[in-house]
Amino acid sequence: MNILMVTMGMGIGGAETHIIELCRALTSRGVLVSVASAGGELVMALKESGAHHIYAPLDKKDPLSMMRSSAILSREIKRNKYDIVHAHARIPAFICGVLQRRLGFRFVTSAHYDFRVNGALRKMTDWGEHTFAVSDDLRRYLLREYGTCGDNVTVTVNGIDTGHFSPSTAEDIRSSLGLRDGEKMILHVSRLEDYSSLFAEKLISAMPEINATTAAKAVIIGGGEKLDELKTEAERINSALGREAVLLLGALSDVRDYIRACDVFASPSRAALEAMACAKPVIVGGSQGYIGIFDENAIYRAVSTNFCCRGEPLVQSDVLARDICRLLTSDSAYLTALGEYNRRFVLENYSASRMADDHMAVYGRLASVKTRCSEYDALICGYFGYGNMGDEAVLRGLIRGLRERKPDIRLCVMTASPGKTARAFCVDTVYRFDMARVRAAMKKSRLLIFGGGNLLQDSTSNASLRYYLYILRSAKSCGMKTAVYSNGIGPVLEAANLERIAAALSACDSVSMRENRSFELAKSLCPQNKNIRLTFDPVLLRESDDKNDIAGTLGLEKGKYFVISPREIDRFSMKKLADAANLIAKKYGLRPVLIAMQRGEDLPVCRALAGDIPGSFVATENTDLQCVLALLADAAFLISSRLHTLICATSAVCPMMAYSEDVKLRSYLEYSGIAEIAGISPSADIKSTPQEIGNIADAVISRGTEIKAHIRASLPTWRALAEYEFSEIIKLIQ
Question: What superfamily would CATH give domain 374-535?
Answer without folding.
Answer: Glycogen Phosphorylase B; (3.40.50.2000)
